[in-house]
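FIELD: query
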Amino acid sequence: MTWCKRNIGLNRRRHYLPILEWHSVGEDCGDYDFEDNIISVYKNQHKSVLEIIHTIIHEWCHYKQSKKKYYDMDEKFGYNKNPLEIQADNLANEFKYKCRKDLFY
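FIELD: result
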């Protein structure tokens, strides 16, 4: 999370950093709760550290996004074609290797 803060930046509309919660089981890799400002990661959905990094960066991107815009886009396009989901996935793909390198090498 510190890596995300330094490399991806903060959401200036929020006064607190998101809380990171780890769960053993879940149906998704992770999620961001806009209401409670919580990033959840579901361990059973990951096979590697790189996948966990991808999920955290992806959810961090949602932390930075507008809740209203996210839900408007989700309603208009659906989850898989939501431009903000695509943006989060692209950001995670762009930065996951740099994050792993910075943290572990």
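FIELD: remark
Residues 83-104 form the longest helix (22 residues).
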